[in-house]
Amino acid sequence: MQSTDKCLEELGWNEFFSDQVSEADVGQCRPVRVMAVHRGKIAVAGAGFESFITPYITGAEPGDDHPTVGDWLLIDRDTAAPMRVLRRMNLFKRRAPGDPRKEQMIAANVETLFIVASCNEDFSVARLERYLVLAREVGVDPVVVLTKIDLTDRLEDFAAAARAIQPGLDVETVNGRDAESAARLAGWCGKGKTVALLGSSGVGKSTLVNTLRGSDSIATQPIRAGDGTGRHTTTVREMHRLAQGGWLLDTPGMRELQLSDAAEGIAEVFDDFILVAQQCRFSNCAHGGEPGCAVRAAIAEGLLPLARFDRWQKLAAEDGIIHARRTKRPR
Ligand SMILES: Nc1nc2c(ncn2[C@@H]2O[C@H](COP(=O)(O)OP(=O)(O)OP(=O)(O)O)[C@@H](O)[C@H]2O)c(=O)[nH]1
Ligand SMILES: [Zn+2]
């Protein structure tokens, strides 16, 4: 199928999706994007088409994909019944609360992940690294967005700490309440582009969303005095239209995202350590004081930072524990 339909392109349609649609499909189905998920219903939009439809695909097996926010879906032209979820560019998911073996889908087909952190006592390199691992694992381009620059006189320190995490990492600094300042992010928010936000409570995600949308439709709450954190103010699960023509996915589930099976993401974000570890005498070196450990040697020589080593080990251990828990069979 040709990917020239303007209306679809504005919704994020591109060759990755059009390549999956045959001429026969086009005769019977229309592609639509899942704009919102409600209980038992999804809101979809296509070329000159908007509707609330059932999310259930007739004849789907239990293990089959079912639609989540951001998905592209083929629906029957006549009945609007969902026929098939198109293969995703990427998918955010999390372990289901209460059952670590089950997964819940959060959002699909995101081009850019804004990893939001504020320039105050809440700023944490460990947390940024964790979100970065997640971005690498999911396969979405990360941009670190540092907010509240109007409240600090140490902006360069915060920015330098973020940039030091990975060479080439995009780091932008904004006052989320100011449209001119937030315009730095416009490049990622253009027509048909989909972005998502990740960041802890109170860092200014909703504020940023409102500014980028050019409206004030998500309620923001004043920060709690004293502890530098805010309360959750976002409750809907949907795509928001941005003033620049892009789409923003801001769902509550994104906030509880945790690492799972993230070995590859960890290896990417900590590739400086992975590279040196290849020189360790033992291929399964745990870098805990074994003879011939290149990682320990590099730390001792001041070539690798000990604090970053500790964060790497902690993330790897956590991922290992989660992985073990997930793969353990129920008795
Ligand atoms: N001065 C200043 N205040 C900001 C900035 N960004 C956000 N705030 C304020 O910080 C508080 C928290 O912002 P929110 O946008 O609600 O934070 P959030 O990340 O969406 O929080 P949750 O919904 O709890 O996840 C609000 O009072 C905002 O007005 C900024 O860049 N500068
Ligand atoms: Zn070692």
From TrEMBL:
GO biological process terms on file: ribosomal small subunit biogenesis
One Pfam family hit: RsgA_GTPase
Keywords: Cytoplasm, GTP-binding, Hydrolase, Metal-binding, Nucleotide-binding, Ribosome biogenesis, RNA-binding, rRNA-binding, Zinc
Annotated cofactor note: Binds 1 zinc ion per subunit.
EC number in record: 3.6.1.-
Superkingdom of this protein's organism: Bacteria
Gene Ontology CC, one term: cytoplasm
Residues at which GTP binds: 147-150, 199-207
Cofactor(s) in the UniProt record: Zn(2+)
Family listed: Belongs to the TRAFAC class YlqF/YawG GTPase family. RsgA subfamily.
UniProt function note: One of several proteins that assist in the late maturation steps of the functional core of the 30S ribosomal subunit. Helps release RbfA from mature subunits. May play a role in the assembly of ribosomal proteins into the subunit. Circularly permuted GTPase that catalyzes slow GTP hydrolysis, GTPase activity is stimulated by the 30S ribosomal subunit.
Protein name: Small ribosomal subunit biogenesis GTPase RsgA
Native organism: Sphingopyxis bauzanensis
Gene name of the record: rsgA
